[in-house]
Amino acid sequence: MYRAPRGTADRLPDRQKYWRYIESKAVALAQQYGFGRVDTPVFEDSGLFVRSVGEGTDIVEKEMYTFQDRGSDSITLRPEGTAPVCRAYLEHGMHNLPQPVRLYYFCPVFRYERPQAGRFRQHHQFGAEVIGDADPSVDAEVIELAWRLMLSLGLRDIQLLINSIGDQQCRPGYVERLKAYYTGYHDQLCADCRQRLTRNPLRLLDCKVEACHALGQAAPRSVDHLCAECQAHWEQLQGYLKHMELPFQVDHRLVRGLDYYTRTVFEVQPLDAGGQSTICGGGRYDALMEQLDGRPTPGIGFATGMERLILNLERSGVAVPEEPSPRYLVASVGDGARPAALELASRMRRASAGAILSSGARTLRGQMRQANALNIPFVAIIGDDEVRDGTVAIRDMTASTQQTLPLAEFLASLGG
RNA sequence: GCGAGCGUGGCCAAGUGGUCAAGGCGCCUGGCUGUGGCCCAGGAGAUCACGGGUUCGAAUCCCGUCGCUCGCCCCA
After folding, report:
1. Are the CB atoms for A383 and A355 separated by under 8 Å?
2. Into how many domains does chain A fold?
């Protein structure tokens, strides 16, 4: 028997309420902030991600779904959302729109990883990007949007972490200081961290091994080595966030795994942060457009993992509204009444009433049981008597009462 | 890529060498020839993940494979 591929999942009807819930909240907020929706293809030229995400990153090195298509072009299933949006910005000349351009999206994201709780090979993100304005007030707005989305979903035991990792001017110097610091403790580092020392020094900061973690306490902090411009940006941002009354915490160990981030980075995490715990992550990417052969254009954005949001909604017991379902089931008695039942159901729907037609192949008792099992509040019963009289029997399943009405009267009562 | 645990009908699950499989949920039917929820009775549905081995005999022991889950790396 075929199964869904590893790390993928079918979304069955009983799960849909979570998706609709998150989507509706996210869309409402995004629109409130002036964002427009953008949808980009599921796959792109592989080069787009290699150049933006970075050749040394895990995503590019071992996690991309890359293949040759029949025209022998190298194609990659989108491993993240920001680069395609930036590509679309450039391709459609959005620099001719009033700046900045605010865009949001929902999309599937693919990474070849070992699945575990909160991590999948295909997962889904809601993301928002503001392109074309480097002012820290934009950072503040984007962070506020992310935070308010979490709150509006009903998530409470969460924290907002921010940091600044500098830009092309100041980060190289900082990274050198960091390397120098950790090199002094080379013998105390775990095997992974010895690798990081040369490959990705920033990641030394958030190693979970106790010895390494302890070393991180006294490690040089990026915010202490910012250039003047980055420093000003960082201070203004914090001031704005305070004015917006956002409960942020500065986390000097917060770094992000994609190469394109500059200056501001931020995450939202559950307080009981475990393994795959980050539910929202983002940051500024002022150099990204140039890497994609565009004019220098600043940008900032974030993405949240839908599956992780749902995981947290369930863990914290947030009540999510049920999907709407029909209020009526149309039952019929006897073969003669079946065409009439079909017609009744059709007329009810044209009158904007939800109706499930029971096929009539089973007994009335069976149809009533079906209505009960489906939690349907009303059953419209039509049999030979009703067909003859032009009526319909309406049973109220919760009150266990029933009345027979003229068909026209019943249909009129449905409204719409 | 590394490490750990697990794999019995759609779901949950008993059974740990000797009637090839209990029970519960769910589904269908009947008890009530046109009426639900409770109850009662019945039914459908399992090559016990797959392959090999040990044994007179395996769901049950051994080996391999596959799959799932959890963790590491990394990330949403």
Report:
1. no
2. 2
